[in-house]
Protein backbone atom coordinates (compact mmCIF):
# COMPACT_ATOMS: atom_id res chain seq x y z
CA UNK A 1 0.00 0.00 0.00
CA UNK A 2 1.12 3.58 -0.62
CA UNK A 3 1.95 5.99 2.22
CA UNK A 4 -1.02 5.98 4.64
CA UNK A 5 -3.12 9.12 4.34
CA UNK A 6 -6.08 7.96 6.41
CA UNK A 7 -5.51 6.07 9.65
CA UNK A 8 -8.53 4.97 11.64
CA UNK A 9 -7.66 3.25 14.93
CA UNK A 10 -10.31 1.92 17.30
CA UNK A 11 -12.83 4.67 16.58
CA UNK A 12 -15.97 4.61 18.72
CA UNK A 13 -19.05 6.80 18.57
CA UNK A 14 -22.44 6.63 20.27
CA UNK A 15 -25.57 8.74 19.94
CA UNK A 16 -27.30 8.53 23.32
CA UNK A 17 -27.80 4.77 23.72
CA UNK A 18 -27.19 3.88 20.08
CA UNK A 19 -23.69 2.79 19.24
CA UNK A 20 -22.79 3.94 15.71
CA UNK A 21 -19.14 2.85 15.62
CA UNK A 22 -17.65 0.08 17.73
CA UNK A 23 -13.88 0.36 17.57
CA UNK A 24 -13.44 0.33 13.81
CA UNK A 25 -9.88 0.38 12.43
CA UNK A 26 -8.35 0.56 8.97
CA UNK A 27 -5.61 2.37 7.12
CA UNK A 28 -5.56 3.53 3.54
CA UNK A 29 -3.49 5.62 1.17
CA UNK A 30 -3.78 7.26 -2.25
CA UNK A 31 -6.46 5.76 -4.48
CA UNK A 32 -10.14 5.03 -4.06
CA UNK A 33 -11.45 3.20 -1.03
CA UNK A 34 -15.10 2.20 -1.00
CA UNK A 35 -17.10 1.86 2.20
CA UNK A 36 -19.85 -0.65 1.63
CA UNK A 37 -22.57 -1.48 4.11
CA UNK A 38 -26.30 -1.43 4.82
CA UNK A 39 -28.11 1.54 6.34
CA UNK A 40 -27.07 2.07 9.94
CA UNK A 41 -23.69 0.42 9.41
CA UNK A 42 -21.93 3.59 10.55
CA UNK A 43 -20.57 4.68 7.16
CA UNK A 44 -21.90 8.23 7.35
CA UNK A 45 -20.73 8.69 10.95
CA UNK A 46 -17.24 7.58 9.94
CA UNK A 47 -17.19 9.81 6.86
CA UNK A 48 -18.33 12.81 8.91
CA UNK A 49 -15.37 12.21 11.20
CA UNK A 50 -13.05 12.04 8.20
CA UNK A 51 -14.58 15.31 7.02
CA UNK A 52 -13.62 16.80 10.43
CA UNK A 53 -17.21 17.76 11.29
CA UNK A 54 -17.71 15.15 14.01
CA UNK A 55 -15.37 14.11 16.81
CA UNK A 56 -15.06 10.46 17.86
CA UNK A 57 -15.80 9.44 21.46
CA UNK A 58 -12.69 7.27 21.52
CA UNK A 59 -9.91 6.12 19.22
CA UNK A 60 -7.40 7.85 16.97
CA UNK A 61 -7.88 9.38 13.56
CA UNK A 62 -5.15 10.81 11.37
CA UNK A 63 -5.86 12.41 8.01
CA UNK A 64 -3.04 13.35 5.63
CA UNK A 65 -0.75 12.93 8.64
CA UNK A 66 -2.65 15.37 10.86
CA UNK A 67 -4.82 14.93 13.91
CA UNK A 68 -8.23 16.62 13.46
CA UNK A 69 -8.55 17.09 17.25
CA UNK A 70 -5.85 19.78 17.10
CA UNK A 71 -7.30 23.08 15.80
CA UNK A 72 -4.29 24.02 13.64
CA UNK A 73 -4.00 20.53 12.20
CA UNK A 74 -7.75 20.42 11.59
CA UNK A 75 -7.46 23.64 9.61
CA UNK A 76 -4.60 22.14 7.58
CA UNK A 77 -6.79 19.12 6.78
CA UNK A 78 -9.73 21.31 5.78
CA UNK A 79 -7.51 23.23 3.36
CA UNK A 80 -6.88 19.98 1.48
CA UNK A 81 -10.32 18.41 1.84
CA UNK A 82 -13.29 18.04 -0.48
CA UNK A 83 -16.49 16.79 1.15
CA UNK A 84 -19.86 15.80 -0.17
CA UNK A 85 -22.31 14.92 2.63
CA UNK A 86 -24.97 12.25 2.26
CA UNK A 87 -27.74 14.83 2.09
CA UNK A 88 -26.16 17.94 0.66
CA UNK A 89 -28.14 21.12 1.27
CA UNK A 90 -28.44 24.04 -1.12
CA UNK A 91 -29.37 27.69 -0.94
CA UNK A 92 -32.10 27.27 -3.52
CA UNK A 93 -32.36 30.94 -4.39
CA UNK A 94 -28.78 30.76 -5.66
CA UNK A 95 -27.90 29.79 -9.20
CA UNK A 96 -25.65 26.77 -9.72
CA UNK A 97 -22.75 29.14 -10.30
CA UNK A 98 -23.49 31.23 -7.21
CA UNK A 99 -23.77 28.14 -5.02
CA UNK A 100 -20.41 26.71 -6.04
CA UNK A 101 -18.92 30.21 -5.86
CA UNK A 102 -20.24 30.50 -2.30
CA UNK A 103 -18.56 27.22 -1.29
CA UNK A 104 -15.36 28.38 -3.03
CA UNK A 105 -15.39 31.49 -0.81
CA UNK A 106 -15.72 29.25 2.25
CA UNK A 107 -12.65 27.45 0.89
CA UNK A 108 -10.71 30.71 1.15
CA UNK A 109 -10.67 31.45 -2.59
CA UNK A 110 -10.83 35.22 -2.34
CA UNK A 111 -9.49 36.32 -5.75
CA UNK A 112 -12.64 36.74 -7.84
CA UNK A 113 -11.22 35.87 -11.26
CA UNK A 114 -9.30 32.79 -10.09
CA UNK A 115 -12.33 31.66 -8.09
CA UNK A 116 -14.75 32.09 -10.97
CA UNK A 117 -12.38 30.16 -13.26
CA UNK A 118 -12.31 27.34 -10.72
CA UNK A 119 -16.11 27.37 -10.38
CA UNK A 120 -16.45 27.07 -14.17
CA UNK A 121 -13.90 24.25 -14.21
CA UNK A 122 -15.73 22.08 -11.66
CA UNK A 123 -19.15 22.77 -13.16
CA UNK A 124 -17.82 21.75 -16.57
CA UNK A 125 -16.26 18.66 -15.00
CA UNK A 126 -19.68 17.38 -13.92
CA UNK A 127 -21.41 18.49 -17.12
CA UNK A 128 -23.33 21.42 -15.65
CA UNK A 129 -21.72 24.16 -17.74
CA UNK A 130 -24.99 24.66 -19.61
CA UNK A 131 -27.03 25.42 -16.48
CA UNK A 132 -24.60 27.62 -14.54
CA UNK A 133 -27.04 30.53 -14.51
CA UNK A 134 -30.09 28.46 -13.59
CA UNK A 135 -31.60 28.67 -10.09
CA UNK A 136 -31.00 25.56 -7.99
CA UNK A 137 -34.73 25.22 -7.31
CA UNK A 138 -35.16 24.70 -11.07
CA UNK A 139 -32.55 21.90 -11.28
CA UNK A 140 -33.45 18.20 -11.28
CA UNK A 141 -32.40 15.88 -8.44
CA UNK A 142 -29.60 14.39 -10.56
CA UNK A 143 -28.29 17.85 -11.43
CA UNK A 144 -28.28 18.85 -7.76
CA UNK A 145 -26.34 15.69 -6.96
CA UNK A 146 -23.78 16.65 -9.61
CA UNK A 147 -23.66 20.15 -8.16
CA UNK A 148 -22.80 18.67 -4.77
CA UNK A 149 -20.07 16.59 -6.41
CA UNK A 150 -18.74 19.69 -8.22
CA UNK A 151 -18.27 21.67 -5.00
CA UNK A 152 -16.31 18.77 -3.49
CA UNK A 153 -13.82 19.00 -6.38
CA UNK A 154 -13.11 22.71 -5.78
CA UNK A 155 -9.40 23.35 -5.38
CA UNK A 156 -8.45 19.84 -6.50
CA UNK A 157 -8.32 18.45 -2.93
CA UNK A 158 -5.84 15.81 -1.73
CA UNK A 159 -8.51 14.07 0.34
CA UNK A 160 -11.97 13.59 -1.11
CA UNK A 161 -14.79 12.31 1.13
CA UNK A 162 -17.94 11.41 -0.80
CA UNK A 163 -21.01 10.04 0.96
CA UNK A 164 -23.14 8.09 -1.50
CA UNK A 165 -22.16 10.25 -4.47
CA UNK A 166 -23.88 8.08 -7.08
CA UNK A 167 -27.30 7.94 -5.40
CA UNK A 168 -29.83 9.52 -7.75
CA UNK A 169 -27.55 9.56 -10.80
CA UNK A 170 -28.65 7.87 -14.01
CA UNK A 171 -26.35 5.20 -15.53
CA UNK A 172 -24.69 7.64 -17.93
CA UNK A 173 -24.01 10.16 -15.16
CA UNK A 174 -22.71 7.36 -12.95
CA UNK A 175 -20.22 6.35 -15.64
CA UNK A 176 -19.13 9.97 -16.00
CA UNK A 177 -18.67 10.17 -12.23
CA UNK A 178 -16.52 7.05 -12.24
CA UNK A 179 -14.42 8.56 -15.01
CA UNK A 180 -13.92 11.85 -13.14
CA UNK A 181 -13.02 10.19 -9.84
CA UNK A 182 -10.72 7.55 -11.31
CA UNK A 183 -8.82 10.20 -13.31
CA UNK A 184 -8.06 12.06 -10.09
CA UNK A 185 -7.35 9.19 -7.75
CA UNK A 186 -3.78 8.31 -8.74
CA UNK A 187 -2.08 10.56 -6.23
CA UNK A 188 -5.09 11.55 -4.13
CA UNK A 189 -7.10 9.78 -1.48
CA UNK A 190 -10.77 9.23 -2.23
CA UNK A 191 -13.08 7.63 0.33
CA UNK A 192 -16.61 7.01 -0.83
CA UNK A 193 -19.56 5.22 0.65
CA UNK A 194 -22.09 3.46 -1.47
CA UNK A 195 -24.82 0.87 -1.56
CA UNK A 196 -23.90 0.06 -5.15
CA UNK A 197 -21.66 -2.99 -5.33
CA UNK A 198 -21.15 -2.33 -9.04
CA UNK A 199 -19.62 1.06 -8.20
CA UNK A 200 -17.17 -0.68 -5.89
CA UNK A 201 -16.34 -3.33 -8.46
CA UNK A 202 -15.80 -0.75 -11.20
CA UNK A 203 -14.08 1.98 -9.24
CA UNK A 204 -12.45 0.91 -5.98
CA UNK A 205 -9.19 -1.03 -5.74
CA UNK A 206 -9.92 -1.26 -2.02
CA UNK A 207 -13.18 -1.94 -0.20
CA UNK A 208 -14.13 -1.94 3.47
CA UNK A 209 -17.41 -3.66 4.32
CA UNK A 210 -19.05 -2.28 7.44
CA UNK A 211 -21.95 -3.49 9.51
CA UNK A 212 -23.19 -2.38 12.93
CA UNK A 213 -20.25 -0.05 13.42
CA UNK A 214 -17.59 -2.65 12.70
CA UNK A 215 -15.39 -3.58 9.77
CA UNK A 216 -16.34 -7.02 8.46
CA UNK A 217 -13.96 -7.06 5.52
CA UNK A 218 -11.01 -5.08 4.22
CA UNK A 219 -9.48 -5.96 0.86
CA UNK A 220 -9.85 -5.78 -2.90
CA UNK A 221 -13.18 -6.27 -4.72
CA UNK A 222 -11.78 -9.56 -6.08
CA UNK A 223 -11.10 -10.75 -2.55
CA UNK A 224 -14.61 -9.69 -1.54
CA UNK A 225 -16.07 -11.72 -4.39
CA UNK A 226 -13.85 -14.64 -3.36
CA UNK A 227 -15.57 -14.67 0.06
CA UNK A 228 -18.45 -16.33 -1.79
CA UNK A 229 -16.31 -18.75 -3.81
CA UNK A 230 -17.99 -22.18 -4.08
CA UNK A 231 -20.97 -20.79 -2.16
CA UNK A 232 -23.10 -19.44 -5.01
CA UNK A 233 -25.20 -21.74 -7.16
CA UNK A 234 -28.18 -21.66 -9.45
CA UNK A 235 -31.23 -23.87 -8.96
CA UNK A 236 -34.81 -24.07 -10.14
CA UNK A 237 -36.07 -23.05 -6.71
CA UNK A 238 -34.89 -21.69 -3.40
CA UNK A 239 -32.49 -24.25 -2.00
CA UNK A 240 -33.31 -25.37 1.57
CA UNK A 241 -29.75 -24.79 2.81
CA UNK A 242 -29.31 -21.35 1.23
CA UNK A 243 -28.72 -18.41 3.53
CA UNK A 244 -29.89 -16.04 0.82
CA UNK A 245 -31.83 -16.73 -2.34
CA UNK A 246 -33.58 -14.70 -5.00
CA UNK A 247 -35.19 -15.27 -8.35
CA UNK A 248 -33.18 -13.83 -11.22
CA UNK A 249 -34.49 -12.39 -14.49
CA UNK A 250 -34.18 -15.72 -16.36
CA UNK A 251 -36.30 -17.52 -13.76
CA UNK A 252 -33.54 -19.40 -11.96
CA UNK A 253 -32.88 -18.95 -8.25
CA UNK A 254 -29.48 -17.64 -7.25
CA UNK A 255 -28.61 -19.22 -3.91
CA UNK A 256 -25.87 -18.18 -1.53
CA UNK A 257 -24.71 -20.29 1.38
CA UNK A 258 -23.24 -23.75 1.86
CA UNK A 259 -23.75 -25.37 -1.54
CA UNK A 260 -25.05 -28.94 -1.63
CA UNK A 261 -23.03 -31.63 -3.38
CA UNK A 262 -23.50 -31.44 -7.15
CA UNK A 263 -24.83 -27.87 -7.09
CA UNK A 264 -24.54 -25.78 -10.27
CA UNK A 265 -21.84 -23.46 -8.88
CA UNK A 266 -21.33 -20.09 -10.56
CA UNK A 267 -18.62 -17.45 -10.43
CA UNK A 268 -19.31 -15.21 -7.41
CA UNK A 269 -19.61 -11.45 -7.79
CA UNK A 270 -18.72 -8.63 -5.41
CA UNK A 271 -22.40 -8.45 -4.53
CA UNK A 272 -22.46 -12.15 -3.59
CA UNK A 273 -19.50 -11.69 -1.26
CA UNK A 274 -21.07 -8.61 0.25
CA UNK A 275 -24.44 -10.25 0.79
CA UNK A 276 -22.84 -13.28 2.36
CA UNK A 277 -21.01 -11.03 4.80
CA UNK A 278 -23.84 -8.78 5.86
CA UNK A 279 -26.63 -11.30 5.48
CA UNK A 280 -30.33 -11.06 5.06
CA UNK A 281 -30.61 -7.46 6.28
CA UNK A 282 -28.74 -6.16 3.27
CA UNK A 283 -30.81 -8.30 0.91
CA UNK A 284 -34.02 -6.85 2.33
CA UNK A 285 -32.58 -3.36 1.91
CA UNK A 286 -31.58 -3.98 -1.72
CA UNK A 287 -35.04 -5.33 -2.46
CA UNK A 288 -36.55 -2.18 -0.96
CA UNK B 1 -6.98 57.65 -47.21
CA UNK B 2 -4.00 59.96 -47.54
CA UNK B 3 -1.64 58.57 -44.86
CA UNK B 4 -0.75 55.49 -42.84
CA UNK B 5 1.01 55.21 -39.50
CA UNK B 6 4.52 53.79 -39.55
CA UNK B 7 5.36 50.51 -37.81
CA UNK B 8 7.15 52.21 -34.92
CA UNK B 9 4.12 54.40 -34.11
CA UNK B 10 1.79 51.40 -34.24
CA UNK B 11 4.04 49.42 -31.93
CA UNK B 12 4.28 52.30 -29.45
CA UNK B 13 0.47 52.58 -29.54
CA UNK B 14 0.06 48.83 -29.01
CA UNK B 15 2.45 48.85 -26.06
CA UNK B 16 0.80 51.94 -24.57
CA UNK B 17 3.95 54.08 -24.83
CA UNK B 18 2.64 56.60 -27.38
CA UNK B 19 1.84 60.06 -26.00
CA UNK B 20 -1.85 60.98 -25.56
CA UNK B 21 -2.07 63.51 -28.44
CA UNK B 22 -0.70 61.09 -31.03
CA UNK B 23 -2.66 58.20 -29.55
CA UNK B 24 -6.00 60.10 -29.88
CA UNK B 25 -5.11 61.07 -33.45
CA UNK B 26 -4.18 57.50 -34.31
CA UNK B 27 -7.37 56.10 -32.74
CA UNK B 28 -9.48 58.42 -34.93
CA UNK B 29 -7.52 57.21 -37.96
CA UNK B 30 -7.85 53.52 -36.99
CA UNK B 31 -11.64 53.77 -37.18
CA UNK B 32 -11.45 54.20 -40.93
CA UNK B 33 -8.16 52.46 -41.90
CA UNK B 34 -8.14 48.68 -42.09
CA UNK B 35 -4.45 48.49 -43.00
CA UNK B 36 -3.37 50.34 -39.82
CA UNK B 37 -5.80 48.31 -37.71
CA UNK B 38 -4.09 45.16 -38.93
CA UNK B 39 -0.75 46.76 -38.12
CA UNK B 40 -1.88 47.36 -34.54
CA UNK B 41 -3.20 43.81 -34.35
CA UNK B 42 0.21 42.43 -35.35
CA UNK B 43 1.97 44.60 -32.77
CA UNK B 44 -0.26 43.61 -29.86
CA UNK B 45 0.94 41.04 -27.31
CA UNK B 46 -1.24 37.99 -28.05
CA UNK B 47 -0.97 36.44 -24.59
CA UNK B 48 -1.96 39.70 -22.95
CA UNK B 49 -4.85 40.10 -25.37
CA UNK B 50 -6.09 36.57 -24.64
CA UNK B 51 -5.84 37.24 -20.92
CA UNK B 52 -7.83 40.44 -21.30
CA UNK B 53 -10.47 38.67 -23.38
CA UNK B 54 -10.73 35.87 -20.79
CA UNK B 55 -11.24 38.47 -18.08
CA UNK B 56 -13.99 40.18 -20.11
CA UNK B 57 -15.65 36.84 -20.88
CA UNK B 58 -15.49 35.88 -17.20
CA UNK B 59 -17.32 39.06 -16.17
CA UNK B 60 -19.88 38.75 -18.98
CA UNK B 61 -20.50 35.03 -18.28
CA UNK B 62 -20.86 35.36 -14.50
CA UNK B 63 -24.55 35.31 -13.60
CA UNK B 64 -25.94 38.59 -12.27
CA UNK B 65 -26.22 38.56 -8.46
CA UNK B 66 -29.60 38.54 -6.74
CA UNK B 67 -31.30 41.61 -5.21
CA UNK B 68 -29.86 41.23 -1.68
CA UNK B 69 -26.35 40.79 -3.05
CA UNK B 70 -26.75 43.77 -5.40
CA UNK B 71 -27.89 45.89 -2.46
CA UNK B 72 -24.89 44.82 -0.39
CA UNK B 73 -22.51 45.57 -3.27
CA UNK B 74 -24.11 49.00 -3.65
CA UNK B 75 -23.31 49.63 0.03
CA UNK B 76 -19.64 49.03 -0.79
CA UNK B 77 -19.38 45.56 0.72
CA UNK B 78 -16.77 43.37 -0.96
CA UNK B 79 -18.05 40.79 -3.42
CA UNK B 80 -17.09 37.66 -1.50
CA UNK B 81 -18.49 39.01 1.78
CA UNK B 82 -21.69 40.03 -0.05
CA UNK B 83 -22.07 36.45 -1.31
CA UNK B 84 -21.57 35.05 2.20
CA UNK B 85 -24.27 37.41 3.46
CA UNK B 86 -26.62 36.67 0.57
CA UNK B 87 -26.79 33.08 1.83
CA UNK B 88 -27.98 34.23 5.26
CA UNK B 89 -31.62 33.17 5.77
CA UNK B 90 -32.34 36.17 8.02
CA UNK B 91 -31.14 38.64 5.40
CA UNK B 92 -33.70 37.50 2.84
CA UNK B 93 -36.25 40.01 1.61
CA UNK B 94 -39.08 37.95 3.16
CA UNK B 95 -37.50 37.99 6.65
CA UNK B 96 -36.63 41.68 6.46
CA UNK B 97 -40.17 42.44 5.30
CA UNK B 98 -41.70 40.46 8.17
CA UNK B 99 -39.42 42.25 10.61
CA UNK B 100 -40.33 45.67 9.24
CA UNK B 101 -44.03 44.79 9.39
CA UNK B 102 -43.88 43.64 13.03
CA UNK B 103 -41.87 46.66 14.16
CA UNK B 104 -44.09 49.03 12.20
CA UNK B 105 -47.21 47.46 13.67
CA UNK B 106 -46.04 47.67 17.29
CA UNK B 107 -44.71 51.23 16.80
CA UNK B 108 -48.04 52.23 15.24
CA UNK B 109 -49.90 50.69 18.22
CA UNK B 110 -47.85 52.88 20.54
CA UNK B 111 -48.58 56.00 18.52
CA UNK B 112 -52.36 55.46 18.60
CA UNK B 113 -52.61 54.23 22.20
CA UNK B 114 -54.51 56.62 24.49
CA UNK B 115 -53.58 57.74 28.00
CA UNK B 116 -49.91 57.65 28.79
CA UNK B 117 -48.08 56.00 25.92
CA UNK B 118 -44.85 55.73 27.88
CA UNK B 119 -46.50 53.34 30.31
CA UNK B 120 -48.63 51.51 27.83
CA UNK B 121 -48.62 47.82 27.07
CA UNK B 122 -48.10 48.76 23.43
CA UNK B 123 -44.78 50.38 24.28
CA UNK B 124 -43.64 47.31 26.22
CA UNK B 125 -44.62 45.19 23.21
CA UNK B 126 -42.59 47.41 20.87
CA UNK B 127 -39.51 47.33 23.08
CA UNK B 128 -39.73 43.56 23.57
CA UNK B 129 -40.16 42.90 19.84
CA UNK B 130 -37.32 45.28 18.95
CA UNK B 131 -35.04 43.55 21.45
CA UNK B 132 -35.92 40.00 20.39
CA UNK B 133 -35.97 40.29 16.58
CA UNK B 134 -32.16 40.38 16.28
CA UNK B 135 -32.01 37.33 18.56
CA UNK B 136 -34.28 35.41 16.19
CA UNK B 137 -32.38 36.72 13.16
CA UNK B 138 -28.99 35.64 14.50
CA UNK B 139 -30.40 32.25 15.56
CA UNK B 140 -31.41 31.47 11.98
CA UNK B 141 -28.35 33.09 10.39
CA UNK B 142 -25.99 30.14 10.70
CA UNK B 143 -25.93 26.72 12.28
CA UNK B 144 -27.21 23.16 12.07
CA UNK B 145 -30.81 22.90 10.96
CA UNK B 146 -31.01 26.48 9.64
CA UNK B 147 -28.19 26.76 7.11
CA UNK B 148 -28.54 24.11 4.38
CA UNK B 149 -24.79 24.19 3.68
CA UNK B 150 -23.81 24.11 7.34
CA UNK B 151 -22.02 20.75 7.15
CA UNK B 152 -20.03 21.58 4.02
CA UNK B 153 -19.22 24.96 5.56
CA UNK B 154 -18.00 23.31 8.72
CA UNK B 155 -15.63 21.13 6.70
CA UNK B 156 -14.21 24.16 4.89
CA UNK B 157 -11.20 26.15 6.08
CA UNK B 158 -13.13 29.38 6.74
CA UNK B 159 -13.64 29.44 10.48
CA UNK B 160 -17.28 28.97 11.42
CA UNK B 161 -16.91 31.54 14.17
CA UNK B 162 -15.80 34.15 11.62
CA UNK B 163 -18.70 33.34 9.31
CA UNK B 164 -21.11 33.49 12.24
CA UNK B 165 -19.78 36.87 13.36
CA UNK B 166 -19.97 38.32 9.82
CA UNK B 167 -23.60 37.24 9.57
CA UNK B 168 -24.48 38.23 13.15
CA UNK B 169 -23.11 41.75 12.64
CA UNK B 170 -25.08 42.12 9.39
CA UNK B 171 -28.28 40.83 10.97
CA UNK B 172 -27.85 42.95 14.07
CA UNK B 173 -27.08 46.04 12.00
CA UNK B 174 -30.15 45.52 9.82
CA UNK B 175 -32.42 44.90 12.81
CA UNK B 176 -31.14 47.95 14.66
CA UNK B 177 -31.65 50.12 11.57
CA UNK B 178 -35.24 48.89 11.15
CA UNK B 179 -36.06 49.32 14.85
CA UNK B 180 -34.57 52.82 14.85
CA UNK B 181 -36.75 53.81 11.91
CA UNK B 182 -39.82 52.28 13.61
CA UNK B 183 -39.04 54.10 16.88
CA UNK B 184 -39.30 57.45 15.10
CA UNK B 185 -43.05 56.77 14.74
CA UNK B 186 -43.47 56.96 18.53
CA UNK B 187 -44.87 60.37 19.53
CA UNK B 188 -42.45 62.68 21.28
CA UNK B 189 -39.55 60.24 20.85
CA UNK B 190 -39.12 59.65 24.61
CA UNK B 191 -35.77 58.20 25.72
CA UNK B 192 -37.46 54.93 26.53
CA UNK B 193 -38.23 54.33 22.85
CA UNK B 194 -34.50 53.53 22.48
CA UNK B 195 -34.42 51.28 25.54
CA UNK B 196 -34.43 48.15 23.35
CA UNK B 197 -30.88 48.75 22.10
CA UNK B 198 -28.79 47.36 24.98
CA UNK B 199 -31.21 44.44 25.56
CA UNK B 200 -31.03 43.52 21.87
CA UNK B 201 -27.21 43.48 21.96
CA UNK B 202 -27.10 41.62 25.28
CA UNK B 203 -29.70 39.02 24.33
CA UNK B 204 -28.07 38.41 20.92
CA UNK B 205 -24.63 37.89 22.47
CA UNK B 206 -26.12 35.65 25.17
CA UNK B 207 -27.75 33.59 22.42
CA UNK B 208 -24.41 33.20 20.65
CA UNK B 209 -22.81 32.00 23.89
CA UNK B 210 -25.66 29.53 24.47
CA UNK B 211 -25.21 28.33 20.85
CA UNK B 212 -21.86 26.84 21.83
CA UNK B 213 -23.81 24.36 23.99
CA UNK B 214 -27.08 23.77 22.12
CA UNK B 215 -28.47 24.41 18.64
CA UNK B 216 -28.88 28.13 17.87
CA UNK B 217 -32.67 27.99 17.61
CA UNK B 218 -32.89 26.25 20.99
CA UNK B 219 -30.46 28.80 22.43
CA UNK B 220 -32.59 31.67 21.11
CA UNK B 221 -35.76 30.08 22.53
CA UNK B 222 -34.22 29.68 25.99
CA UNK B 223 -32.76 33.22 26.04
CA UNK B 224 -35.98 34.79 24.73
CA UNK B 225 -38.14 32.82 27.16
CA UNK B 226 -35.96 33.84 30.08
CA UNK B 227 -36.08 37.47 28.95
CA UNK B 228 -39.87 37.41 28.67
CA UNK B 229 -40.07 36.02 32.21
CA UNK B 230 -37.77 38.75 33.51
CA UNK B 231 -39.82 41.51 31.83
CA UNK B 232 -43.07 40.11 33.21
CA UNK B 233 -41.86 39.47 36.75
CA UNK B 234 -40.17 42.90 36.97
CA UNK B 235 -43.39 44.54 35.80
CA UNK B 236 -45.50 42.78 38.46
CA UNK B 237 -42.98 43.31 41.23
CA UNK B 238 -42.82 47.11 40.97
CA UNK B 239 -46.13 47.68 39.12
CA UNK B 240 -44.27 49.22 36.19
CA UNK B 241 -44.56 47.63 32.74
CA UNK B 242 -41.29 49.22 31.69
CA UNK B 243 -39.30 48.23 34.78
CA UNK B 244 -36.96 45.88 32.92
CA UNK B 245 -36.09 48.63 30.45
CA UNK B 246 -35.28 51.35 32.95
CA UNK B 247 -31.88 52.30 34.42
CA UNK B 248 -31.20 49.23 36.53
CA UNK B 249 -32.16 46.91 33.68
CA UNK B 250 -29.86 48.79 31.30
CA UNK B 251 -26.97 48.42 33.74
CA UNK B 252 -27.60 44.70 33.90
CA UNK B 253 -27.39 44.53 30.13
CA UNK B 254 -24.03 46.30 30.08
CA UNK B 255 -22.81 43.56 32.42
CA UNK B 256 -24.41 40.81 30.28
CA UNK B 257 -22.78 42.23 27.12
CA UNK B 258 -19.31 42.34 28.73
CA UNK B 259 -19.66 38.84 30.17
CA UNK B 260 -20.96 37.43 26.87
CA UNK B 261 -18.06 38.90 24.91
CA UNK B 262 -15.59 37.24 27.28
CA UNK B 263 -17.41 33.90 27.20
CA UNK B 264 -17.78 34.00 23.43
CA UNK B 265 -14.06 34.61 22.97
CA UNK B 266 -13.31 31.72 25.32
CA UNK B 267 -15.81 29.34 23.70
CA UNK B 268 -15.29 30.26 20.02
CA UNK B 269 -13.54 26.98 19.19
CA UNK B 270 -16.79 25.16 20.03
CA UNK B 271 -18.20 26.40 16.71
CA UNK B 272 -15.48 24.65 14.71
CA UNK B 273 -16.48 21.02 15.06
CA UNK B 274 -20.18 20.48 15.07
CA UNK B 275 -20.74 22.21 18.40
CA UNK B 276 -24.34 22.47 19.39
CA UNK B 277 -25.31 19.65 17.03
Helices of chain A, by number, come to: 10
Biggest chain pair contact, residues each? A-B, 44 and 33 residues
N- to C-terminal distance of chain B: 77 Å
Strand proportion of chain B: under 5%
Helix content of chain B: 55-70%
Mean pLDDT of chain B: 85
Detail the poorly predicted runs of chain A: none
| Quaternary class | heterodimer
Alpha carbon gap, first and last residue of chain A = 37 Å
Q: Strand count, sense and closure of the main sheet of chain B? A: none
Shape descriptor of chain B: elongated
What does the radius of gyration of chain B come to? 29 Å
Question: What would you call the structural class of chain B?
Answer: mainly alpha
Number of strands of chain B: 0
Question: What's the alpha carbon Rg of chain A, rounded to whole Å?
Answer: 21 Å
Count of individual beta strands of chain A:
13
Order of helices and strands of chain B: HHHHHHHHHHHHH
